[in-house]
Amino acid sequence: MKILAISDEECSALWDYYVPGRLKEYDLIISCGDLKADYLSFLVTMARCPVLFVHGNHDTHYAERYPHGCDCIDGQVVTYNGVRILGLGGCVWYHPGSHQYTEKEMRRRVRKLWLQIRKAGGVDIIVTHAPPRGVGDANDNAHRGFEVFLELMEKYKPKYLLHGHVHMNYGDSPIRERTYRETTVINTYERYTVEIPEKEVPLKQWRQVIWMGREPKTPDE
User: pTM for this structure?
Assistant: First the structure.
């Protein structure tokens, strides 16, 4: 399964200068946050595959202008084509605002997911906005990572952790991929392609499978 992972900055080649068919190779698009709602809605229309997203700390406008056609997986464990995906948006709290959490608050969010993770039998991909602490984060308060993400990787050994928040033009030597134990940690700034083996789940059943029997939340919920 080929996944287009995106975050933080809209890619002009996929929006302003989009060429029909440019997204046909992708089976899934995952947003790690801080992207315009119109951009996500455009991608889900052009790609004709699901677009899943978590909130970045600048995605407060989604409350008024929702990325229609896309599915929020923030605080959820979902399954697509047999691949189990856990979503945890937001960043470390650094000033008053939405989608910002203290370490304690993020740990509480993680604890609430234990039953969903157990029912899914584990996790293959973790999707976050902020990076793990010490693995692709920065030293300033706004761009520090969460320590609890390290514990998630240690316990569940996902193949990938996809994050945004730290722009590739920060610092002198930006690195896309890092490894933490058995997990490849990827900064998805703008766009990055990830390939992962599919499991046997028919594509036409993705909406039923992804929500594990639940209806997706509407913007007003």
Answer: 0.88
